[in-house]
Amino acid sequence: MQFAKRLQPLQSNVFADMDTAKTKALAASKELIDLSLGSSDLAAQPHIIDAIAKSLDDPSTHGYLLFGATIAFRTAAATWYEQKFGISIDPETEVLPLIGSQEGTAHLPLAILNPGDYALLLDPGYPSHAGGVYLASGLIYPMPLRAENEFLPIFSDIPVDVLNKARMMVLSYPHNPTAATAPLSFFKEAVAFCQNHNIVLVHDFPYVDLIFSDETAPSIFQADPEKSVSIEFFTLSKSYNMGGFRIGFAIGNADLIRALRQVKAAVDFNQYRGILNGAVAALTGPQTGVQTAVATFKRRRDAFIGALDNIGWHVPTPQATMYVWAKLTDAWRHNSIEFCTKLVQETGVAASPGAGFGKSGEGYVRFALVREPLILEIAVQRIAEFLK
């Protein structure tokens, strides 16, 4: 058989290699502490589960769900956004349901890029952002993120010949994997840059609520209130612990929403109506579960950072997300993959190598805070033995 050339960039997957390493560790009777995946171990709130459960007994929820029938969810998403950011949203033309935000970021390049067009992506960044560009036969220009620049890209460093062929830029703050945050002034700079160069600005915003300070994470539309060039992706995976339910949404420029809807119409219908009912309950119901999740991850962050500090691995305290982005020691500075592979095989502690998120991620490792503090402290004890 002959397969499309666009699959070639997708063949190398560091995280698949890590799954193999974890399997070997389990086979060797290692007790696994998996901190490699950003999948919350917390439960969705009872009122969310109840809404989904009640839907199962309703036969009217069992069929295909067309766009028009998603209006209750789109209205809930628009109202949630307006209450959070104070910007009016039209649920009919500016909201689109998604099977998780990853589905939206992966499909959007099909609506924007022609073969040979550039997408400007964060490096390191979330892997599906690159995957969607490859599937659209686009080219990637990685925007390096450095600690000395607070893990923010420098737009003036982008070459003119790349800008001439650039059609979209993808940002995501609070950021996975570095846990960096971005001020509103940065987003205003990004909006102006994209307006000047006729570039679609995409903001992937899964960690909108996972902030550990009194500040709030800015929405792209606080910098682009007219929605002139922007689209923003949200998910219920992080704030509401609904990762396995695969539900998210896009808000943005009506033309971009329409274009993404055209792509989706060719490949899927919509999420099961019962899950949308659960999502409506999440967005419109009590938000105490969100507050509890934030407090839980903050406690875990403090425990993990404190334990690392005690073993002499000094890491900046992240102000957002569920991750710790740790710079490796000199002995492992150029081989984060080998570090993570050997770590899990020898100790059972699984982490994500920075190289899996892009060239600029090399020299770092990402830990996901998806276990309780005591287990995180045990993980650090094992890491200390490994480093010896």
Q: Describe it for me?
A:
There is one protein chain. By secondary structure, the protein is α/β, with parallel strands linked by helices. It is built from twelve helices and twelve strands. The chain has helices at residues 14-27, 46-56, 71-85, 101-112, 127-135, 160-163, 184-197, 254-267, 273-284, 288-310, 336-347, 373-387, and strands spanning 33-34, 95-98, 118-123, 139-144, 166-171, 200-204, 230-235, 248-252, 323-327, 349-350, 352-353, 364-368. The protein has a seven-stranded mixed beta sheet, with helices on both faces. A three-stranded antiparallel beta sheet has the order 9-12-11. It has a two-stranded parallel sheet with strand order 1-10. The longest helix has 23 residues, at 288-310. The mean pLDDT is 96.
Biggest sheet features: 7 strands, mixed
Question: Could you report the average pLDDT, rounded to the nearest whole number?
Answer: 96
Shape: globular
> Low-confidence runs (pLDDT<50, min 5 residues)?
none
Computed structural class = alpha/beta
Strand/helix succession: HEHHEHEHEHEHEEEHHHEHEEEH
Give me the number of helical elements.
12
Strand order of the largest sheet: 2-8-7-6-5-3-4
> Helix content range of the residues, please?
25-40%
Euclidean distance between termini CA atoms: 49 Å
Labels describing this entry:
388 residues, alpha/beta, seven-stranded mixed sheet, three-stranded antiparallel sheet, 12 helices, 12 strands
